[in-house]
Amino acid sequence: MSEAARIDGKAFAADLRARIGAAAANFAVAAGRRPGLAVVLVGDDAASQVYVGAKARACEEAGIAS
């Protein structure tokens, strides 16, 4: 039996955001506009608002319009 590999989630996420940012920049050059994420929030659930805020911050970090 092989040993389980330990994954650094924060480092993986940072690397993924960087790669997505590079892809978003390439898209912006090719398409003439930034890629974007639209969110429809229904209701006043506080947890949903926190989730949507986190997605907006992640988009900005990756160069994606939100």
Give a summary of the structure in a few sentences:
This protein is mostly helical and 66 residues long.
Description of the structure:
The protein has 66 residues and is mainly α. The chain contains 2 helices and no strands. The protein has helices at 9-31, 46-61. The longest helix has 23 residues, at 9-31. The radius of gyration is 16 Å and the shape is flat. The termini are far apart. The relative contact order is 0.17. The mean pLDDT is 92.
Secondary structure topology:
Elements: H1 9-31, H2 46-61
Radius of gyration: 16 Å
How would you state the average pLDDT, rounded?
Answer: 92
Number of strands: 0
Question: What spatial form do the alpha-carbon principal axes imply?
Answer: flat
Percent of residues in beta strands: under 5%
Helix content: 55-70%
Provide the structure class: mainly alpha
Q: State the low-pLDDT regions, or none.
A: none
Distance between the termini: 45 Å
Topology order in helix (H) and strand (E) letters: HH
Q: Tell me about the biggest sheet?
A: none
Discrete helix count: 2
Task: Throw out a few tags for this protein.
mainly alpha; flat
